[in-house]
Design brief:
Rossmann fold; 9 helices; 7% strand; 4-stranded parallel beta sheet; alpha/beta; single chain; 55% helix
Length: 192
């Protein structure tokens, strides 16, 4: 099964995270991450919730719960033993070294990130592609749009806990408008 490291930048937006992880639950690929990615996610999720009006303690609790749920749902996703490779790649931002190290240890074929420029091709092992979430989703969905639509339906079913309940059409509209996944949405609408 194809393995991809999901960088913090693609896990932080809630709906995008839910969609990408739902594709993983459907067995369309294997998502992986480092403990450092989860620590960054927990921090940024708490900051986001505070900015939206959540009390600091409740935001921290919810962010911690999110990471715990991810660890539980994807018990084999947290890559172990990447620390020894950190610092070997000479990336522009040394704080991104753990992402490449995790990809190498996991045998990942891709790093999915919004920050493609932070991972110059000449510094990344040739077996690892650095891709934006839209390109990754297009490639993944194109393999089996019907199964991918099941992932979208799951996202819609899980929505509504901390906001309005979404329909499948709402999820598709948000993926297109907020995350610029127009080609993905087109494939999914054809599968409906």
């Amino acid at each position: 099964m194809f393995t991809a490291v999901l960088d913090t930048s693609v896990l932080w937006p809630s709906l995008q995270r839910d969609f990408l992880l739902s594709l993983g639950i459907e067995g369309m690929y294997r998502p992986v991450w480092s403990s450092a990615i989860l620590e960054e996610l927990e921090h940024h999720e708490a900051v986001k919730l505070v900015a939206r009006g959540e009390q600091k303690a409740e935001a921290a609790r919810r962010a911690c719960r999110l990471v715990a749920k991810m660890r539980s749902a994807f018990s084999d996703a947290e890559v172990q033993g990447w620390e020894g490779l950190e610092g070997r790649y000479g990336l522009p931002d040394p704080d991104d070294e753990h992402v490449v190290a995790a990809a190498v240890v996991a045998g990942a074929g891709a790093i999915v990130t919004h920050n493609v420029r932070d991972f110059p091709a000449d510094r990344i092992p040739s077996e690892v592609q650095v891709v934006r979430p839209n390109d990754f989703a297009c490639n993944t969905v194109s393999v089996d749009p019907t199964r991918a639509l099941t992932a979208v339906e799951a996202v819609a079913r899980r929505s509504g806990r901390h906001g309005p309940r979404l329909t499948v059409d709402d999820v598709l509209d948000h993926l297109a408008s907020r995350y610029h996944m127009n080609a993905v949405v087109e494939m999914l609408r054809l599968a409906e």
